[in-house]
Structures are given as structure tokens and as C-alpha cells.
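dumping the sequnces here before i forget
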Amino acid sequence: MIEVENVHKGFDGTPVLEGVDFEIDECNLFAIVGHSGSGKSVLLRHLVGLLQPDQGHVRVGDTDLATLSDDELETVRTRFGMLFQGGALFDSMTVYDNVSLPLRLHTDQPESEIEARVMEELERVELRAAADQTPASLSGGQVKRVALARAIVRKPQYLFYDEPSSGLDPETSSVIDALIKQLSRTLCRMGVMVTHDMHSVLSIADQVGFLHEGQMRFVGTVEELRACTDPVLCDFLEANAYQL
Amino acid sequence: MISALASKVVTLFQHVGRFVRLLGEAFGSPIYDGPTYRQNLAREMKQVGVESLPIVAIAAAFTGGVTTEQTIYQMRYPLIPESTVGAIVVPSVILEFGALITAFILAGRVSARIAAELGSMRTNGQIDALSVMGISASGYLVWPRVLAGVITFPFLYIVASVVGGAAGFGVAATSGTVTPAEFLSGARSFFTGFMAVYGLVKAVVFGFLITAIACYVGFYTEGGAQGVGRSATRAAVTTCMFVLVADYLLALLML
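..and the predicted 3d for all of it:
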């Protein structure tokens, strides 16, 4: 379970998050939506411990991330996997080396086991043939898929997705959505997704949080989202109607 | 005026604190996987050391040659023995020019590259990706680069000193003013083992400063492409300044 309690955060005196509260249950995929600049990415960075709240708590399981030392935080993060918006692959490494990196640095597995595991995940994202290529030779969608393979190669308990379908064509976006859905439903990984893509949200999310002016204005299921009564949320959904 | 000065002093201390913290984290973090770290260190040593060899050798050769020419020009009075040329050129190269010329070349070539590389990794999210994977980004990225600088810089210094001295000898021998025997006699009469030790200590200090400052500047890059460009420039300028200050302090302490 992930629990966010009364989180406040500001930068240079400008408040970005102002008392955010919500909880995410095991095996659920939680989508955070909102206008640009509403603090979605800032909130996501709090969930993985890249930022610490000025006030409030972020708990992953029973652990309050703000109370951990750097070493303890690194240990907790071994249960995390994250898909970054631009992929964040290491361009000096091949696809294989990128995906195998978490296994090499955190496990004592022999090379044969690492190779089998890496190939299994590359197979899942349909990029087994690209193992020896460098990220520079891949398309945007392929980079996202490799980054997803790297995020899940250690079978993390918690998965975080920052704009997983941004910059992708609808077909590739659907492929990424299907992979995220598979990870959440089949493998029971808890997922948190920050996105602008309402089509993705409505098709794969279990719960949705609407972040507006630094506060979580709505938290509920997709069905509850569709039956919105809050005028601000309804306006946001109408503005994204072309995606629905 | 006073508040602006105070603000600058506070900023300076913040930089020093973050610099020390970054290095503490880098060298205090666990080595997760020996082969991967050795591979990173070897790659950095190749980029810092091997790939800098040609430019260091060329710069050292010209510096040695020019120093000899200028010394010969200043020694044109008949009362000064010709062996003085060797006595000035060789110690100058070993004590000062070998390390300083190498440092300036690496400050431009290596520190700008390291700062741009880490800055680009910061802006592209790769440093955050390492952190989220549970890997100490400072340990993984900073440690091999600083160690590579400290290990390879003394070798570059030795190459620069040998090439600079040899170039000086060659210029002296072909000048018609100083015979090779006189040049070597002068060089031998003033050379001491301490000079080489002093030069090597400088090389280690310069190697550390150049790579550590570059890592610091690059690691904390802010902004996009402009930020990366700023970091590369700032790293080159800052390392040159710190090399000069360290050069003076080492001379005060050791000579």
C-alpha cells in the first residue's frame, strides 16, 4: 500500500502541492491526471523519494520515506521500478546492458541467469532482436518499451510511470498500455501513472486522482470519474473529450 | 552591498558543503558489482588518460622547445655558461610546466567533457533513473571518474616532462649555441629527485581537482541544453582557477 498524507511542497516560496491525501491499494493501477503545471510530476517524484515533502508523509508499505537515510532509501527503492518520460536509457550502453544493469548491480546472479531474465523481458516488450542495438538507433516507442523492460526486470513491487504514452502514436501507445495493464492485472504490481492521455486512463486505470491547484480534488474509480459532478473536473474531462 | 557579499559567502559555503557531501557519498557508497565498476574505471582511464596523450605530448614538446629558445635568448652574454640553459629548462619543465600544461589541457578537454556528460545525464533523467533503481548515482558516476583522474594524471605528467625535456634538448642541440653535452651537464647539476616527487604530487592534486570539480558541476546541472553548456564552460573555467590556486599553495608548502 502507498499512503500520501497531507503532503505540502513548494519551490522558492511558490506552493506546488498543498495538502495532498490519497491511498493506493495493492495490485491497483492509480492514474494521476491534471492540467499542465498542476504538480503531477512533483507528486510522482515524492512517491519514489526523489523529493521530500516540506510537510506531510509518504508511506510505502509501513515505511515513511522522509525518515530514511540515503542508504535505507536505496534499499527501499530496490522494490521500485520507474518508467521515465523520455526513457532515461544510458546511451553509452546497448539495450541488453541497459536492461541488465539493475540485475548486475543488485544481484549475484550468474551471467546465464541474467541473460535469460533480460531476454524474457525484452521478449515481453517485443524487442528481443534489438538487444545489441544502442538507444540512439531506436524509435521513441522502442525506447519506452526498453525502459519498461528495465523497470520490470527485477520484478519490482511498485511501478511508477511518468507520461508513459507521451509522444507516441496511438498504436504504440496502445502497446504500452497493454503492457502496463498486464503488469498490474496479471502480475499484481501496484502502479502509479502520471499522464495526460485520458484514453489510457479510462482503459487501464483502476483508480484516478485529479490534481488541481496543488490539491487532490477527486479520487475514485473510473466509473466514478465518468459520473463526475465537480464542475472543475467535468471541465477538464470535457476539454479532453476528443481523447475519450 | 554587505548583504550581497554575505549572500555570496553563504553560496560559497553551500557549494563547498555540497561538494564535500557529493564526494563523501561517492567514495562511501557500496561497490555493487566489481566487474561493472572496473569496466567504468577502465573506460574513464582511457578517456582521461590515453586519449589525452597526443595533445599533452604536443603541448609539452612546444613548451619545452619555446622555453629553451627563450632561455638561449636570455643567456647570450658571454659570462654566463652555456650549461645554464639545461639547468633552467629541465627543472622548469619538471617543476612547473609538465604538470601545469597538462592540467590546463585536461581542464579544457576532460573537465568540460565530464561536466557535459553528467549534465546531460541529469537533464535526461538518467541520474534520477539510477537513484530510483536503488543505485547510488554519485558512487556509480563520480567515483570512477575521479579515480581515473588521480591515477592517469601522474602518467600524463611523466610523459609531458619527458617530452618537454627532450624537445628542449633537441632545440638546444640544433641551435648552435649550446652543445648537447653542455645542456645535459646543466640539467644533471640542478636536477634532484625531490623535483620529480613535487611534480608527481602536483599531478595527483590537479587530477583530483579537475575531475572532482567537473563531476560536481555536471552532477548538479540545472536547466536543459543551455544548462549543460553552462556547466561545461563553468567546469573548464573553475578547474583552471583552482589549479592555479593549488599550484601556488603547493609551491608555498613544498618548496
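Residues 86-154 of chain A form one domain.
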